[in-house]
Sequence to fold (196 residues):
Amino acid sequence: MKDIIRTALRDSAALHILMAETMTDIISAAAAEIVKSFMCGGKLLLFGNGGSAADAQHIAAEFINHFTIERAPLPAIALTTDTSVLTSIANDRVYDEIFSRQVEALGRRGDVALGITTSGSSENVLNGLFVAADRGMKTIALTGELGRAASLADIGLRVPSQEVPRIQEAHIAIGHILYKLVDSVLIHKQQGGSSL
Fold:
């Protein structure tokens, strides 16, 4: 039992160190796009399945409420929470449209769509990103190292792992970093500073 615990924690730590060495620039670019959208009156739409749905909701909650710094709420919407919308689309249309239909209704040029998929291949997430791009939105994909989502998005946050638990742990770490970066940039700009 203790070996399982040690291995999980060591593997997670090793992945985070690798991400620190390889993903700094791309995470910074994602934060910059989110800042740009918020500053121009845009919003962040987030979506994913299962654990990724929970991550979408977690990230949206921290932007709307606050993370470590008290600030005004920021417009972030998780497209995973309205069961009536989700089930009506899945029932009347197809499950693969549960996010794209909402992006079509709510997304506007200048908004950012953040699709989360550990496999990088969830069809409903891919469809959401396609529709977002068609509407002139910036797209960010938060994935593992496999799948198409990171390649088709404007910014692909491709965690260098194929292990779902480690990818999910990395995704929420990236979410926390995005809050920190966005908050620090917005507060810096309010004080008359420049960008990232």
About this structure: The chain has a mean pLDDT of 95. The chain has one domain: 2-190. Residues 87 and 93 are 10 Å apart (CA to CA). The radius of gyration is 17 Å.
